[in-house]
Amino acid sequence: MTRPDLTDDAKVAEYRAELRAVGRNQRLAGFALVIIGAIAVWGSGVAGGAGPVLQWIGYGALATGWALMLGAIFMRTRYHRRRMAEMD
User: Fold this and answer.
1) What is the tens place of the pLDDT at every residue in 16-35?
2) pTM of the entire structure?
């Protein structure tokens, strides 16, 4: 992998767009799960008898969503480090 050319603003913007694309699907899926989980936990109070089950499903969605988002951040950081490393 070659080091990115960051000599002018256009190339910096191109590299930033490249970095944003790394792990994008995982970040979006994680964000959606966090939102769904938060709504499920919030709505479990009015769900009646299904409240405790809905609450656990919400907590599971929250945990999975945050794990996906952190995994995507880790992937992006690892990609950036590989790109910035000097190749001999």
Assistant:
1) 999 999 999 999 999 999 99
2) 0.81
Residues in contact with 17: Cβ distance below 8 Å, sequence separation at least 6, in sequence order: none
Residues in the chain: 88
CB 15 within 8 A of CB 9: no
Q: Print the SS3 string covering 25-82.
A: HHHHHHHHHHHHHHHHHHHHHHCHHHHHHHHHHHHHHHHHHHHHHHHHHHHHHHHHHH
| Cβ atoms < 10 Å from Cβ of 58 | 20
Predicted pLDDT of residue 59: 97
Q: Do residues 16 and 69 lie in contact, with contact meaning Cβ atoms separated by under 8 Å?
A: no
Q: How many domains does the chain have?
A: 1
In a domain, 11, yes or no: no
Q: Is residue 70 part of a domain?
A: yes
Query: Using CA atoms, how far apart are residues 74 and 61, in angstroms rounded to an integer?
Result: 20
